[in-house]
Amino acid sequence: MIYLDAGTTYSKIIAINETFDSQYLVDSNLNKSYYIIPSALIKKQNIEIKKACGHMSNANENEIIALANGCKNYIDSDATVLDLGSRDAKWIRFKNNKFHDMDWNTSCASSTGATVEMLLKFYNLKREDLIFNEEKFAVTCGIFGLEKIMDDISNGTDAKTAISKFVHGIAYNAWNFAKKPNKIYLSGGFCENKCFVDSLKHYCKIELLGRFILCEGLINSDKELVNV
Amino acid sequence: MSIIGFWGYPNPKLIEETKREYPNAEWIDLDIDFQYPDKNILPESYCKIIKNIINNAIELKPIKILAPIGKDKCDSGWFVAQILKDLGFNVEESIFEEFTYKQELKICTSNIPLYDKITIITDNIIKLDKNHYEQCKPKFGFWGVPPNDLEILKLFPNETHVYGWTRCVEAKTPADIELEMFVDEGVPTVFYAQAFCAKAQLAKYLADKYNGLYIDIDDYANNSIKAKIEAFLRLR
Fold first, then answer.
1. What is the nearest CA distance from A101 to chain B, expressed in angstroms?
2. Whose CA is closest to B109, among B145, B132, B138, B130?
3. Are A107 and B231 an interchain contact pair (Cβ–Cβ within 8 Å)?
4. What is the pTM of this model?
5. Which helix (H) or strand (E) holds A72?
6. A129-184 pLDDT, tens per residue?
7. In chain B, what is the straight-line distance between the N-terminal and C-terminal CA atoms, in Å?
8. Alpha-carbon distance values, B135 to B104, B105, B113, B117, B161 (Å)
9. Are B165 and B86 in contact (CB under 8 A)?
């Protein structure tokens, strides 16, 4: 059985009792195999999907519901879970193990993962090159943020420092967007961006949930493990 | 056929006078998005409902426009009335701030689909609805004005009660701010505002106060906004 979280840039797959293309395998545990594959390639794969969420036409589960169902085994009874990926940001808060609040930044995607990836490609850098910087750019709008990076670089700052300030700005925005909690459980691709994680740690405690929480939510809702 | 245009909730006295004056006219609610081309009179980023009023008026050429400009509408109602006058339309300003016509609710609290509730309420402004509706306890709430994108209303279950300005319209008290700010505490409510509308102040404030979901939509809801509403309804 294959459970798919189809992101804008990358798709995450958990396969249970079956295997998928091994070149995309990132982890395995008992009968579960974990894969990350560029979303552009998903349509070319001949796979039968049990359940899916995300940016694809036949997604049959809501992403916030998948996030809520996926995170419950990993969080405290009072918790804020933020999923920050390629295109959008969403968070959900639980109080006493019950849903309390949520938001989904659906319209302006310019400050999230895809932009950072494009910047890294444009300046020929790796994610690991970015290092937390005390300074941050105001990136309420990603386009203005890009302008700040270009100004900074033209004033003599090296590209990795300028992009690190941009990433710090994204972390600050994400924390504000989630209503400034004391602790964030982080899900999504930014878990693997150390510069982002260190920037977010500047504002709150942080615990990483990794990139497969939505897939796990799909599995859990299939099992009807969680009442939402 | 001659057209009488209006927006919001014109004073019922004025509606009756105009009906007598133009007994055969067709009445058209200029708030509604009939998807006529934008006339580029208002700024690009502006309340879609007010843009509808201008676009519809220019396209449909009503012989008379009843123009609410008081607290029963919004400041933008006042400004758009002045623009339409300046464009040469026959505009009669209306203020409907009294409570003399106040009536009991039967639609906002009924168990018919939310889409039907809101369209019946707005139709009721000109043509009195005499039907009876089965009442229900609220499972969810929808607070706000009739949205430009009425399709979002189809996401809600029938047991959704209506609050905010739309509730005031059914009560025939569109300027009743106390009623506009009323919600049933404990009922999970979506607080909706048209983007760039001053009522967004109330929507956001009340959503925070009652732990509801605040949303604003500019034109038409994208899939993510719909998913956000769906998630709220399922998780609450």
1. 7
2. B138
3. no
4. 0.82
5. none
6. 999 999 998 876 666 778 888 899 999 999 999 999 999 999 999 999 999 999 99
7. 49
8. 13, 10, 12, 12, 10
9. no
